[in-house]
Amino acid sequence: MPIGRAHSVAVNGVEGQLVEIEADIGQGLPSVHLVGRPDTTLQESRDRVRAAVTNSGEKWPDGRVILALSPATLPKVGSVYDLALSAAVLNAAGAIPSNRLSESVLLGELALDGRVRRVRGILPAVLAARTAGRRTVIVPTAALTEAGLVDGIRVLGASTLIELLDWLRGGGELARPEPVEPPATVSIGDLREVVGQDEARWALEVAAAGGHHLLLTGPPGIGKTMLAQRLPGLLPPLRERDSLEVTAIHSVAGTLSDDAPLVTAPPFVAPHHSSSVTAMIGGGSGSARPGAVSCAHRGVLFLDECAEIGTKVLEALRTPLEEGEVRIARRDGVSRFPARFQLVLAANPCPCAPARDIDCICAPLARRRYLGKLSGPLMDRIDLSVQMHAQAAGAFTGDEVESSESVRARVTAAREAAARRWAELGMSTNGEVPGHVLRQHFRLPHEALAPVENALRHGRMSARGADRAIRVAWTICDLRGGELPNAQDVLQALSFRQRG
Known about the structure:
Oligomer: single chain
Radius of gyration: 27 Å
Distance between the termini: 75 Å
CATH architecture of the largest domain: 3-Layer(aba) Sandwich
Structural class: alpha/beta
Number of helices: 19
């Protein structure tokens, strides 16, 4: 009896690889054997697929069925292969032809009655199918809008196994994706709602324009959280390439909305301070899933009450902050997730957190130990640090402050200037530029670099800190419309590196 073939996709991280599924029906007692490093969920698919085929009115072969998934060395995880497994078996049994099946990639989980259920990671799987040169991909109808975001490949949706088999036999039509309407921009709040805090507002604008990391310290109720929540409203919409990349991460994480499957606005992720290392960085049993740092890719990761977060969690942020990527090692390989985010930290000055410093009842050692969780290497990666103070009563009755819209216009202009400057390097913000590029190809005049060299000479700053201060100086220069940072820009950037 001939061998049946179908194709699906294995997703590892946010990357997919085409998987060929072969079915052989031989003599022997009726049984189903899966080979090719399947995990537990995939092993259980033998019973799901058999029941779905039978309940869809098809005959399951009376013999020994061997299903081989190749490449054999690649771990196969999840239930995304159910559709392809059933099609491969029926193709081997001669129940369906190979003409349409050989050109298609099948993605979806089967219910016992033959319904096709949605799975995580549809978008990166469709992108992998397109990269592999496949012409058609079949997905669950519930994931049709998400899959339809990919151009250059025909996307069809099946709600039941019967619909799919009818189409493979040359009859019937499968659903096609509808055009995706850009979701309406939802803002958490406007910057004009924040009273006073001119220095913190300016630091927020600089952070938005350059993609820099920010630390806000001050007593409770002073506006730290309000400022952080308004940072996404200052950022421009995601570019098409970044939008697909962020959407792919959220697809793997299973957090995409059916109403708005395409992420077009910079995400804002604010995990609780009790989050574990796995929740923050990613991981989990079986296939690794993205954590908060990857879900905040091209957006903002806000850690409120950061002094209450575990030391191991905070230290785990150091590598993604520096490299913009998370690598999660497993027995079967390494999963990679992008993690190019803006970090915003907010903390009280001490455990008792009084409204005024003179009312503090903490011992000096307790105050030092409280913010001591923010280690030197972590703080060295923070570009802007602001100590916020209580506002005078006149701040509540003063002139109206700028709105997010007016600040966003300046931020957008500054980002466009930076994008033109770094276009040849494939970067778009000052915060991404490597230090050696700043020192060798975009070196500042000696008089502008003098404050940085003086800080290095007296041991008040590391080489990494110097690079980050120069990046901030470039951002300040872009905001004022200058061509090259001057000494004043560098001095202002250095003032932001003083720990609050």
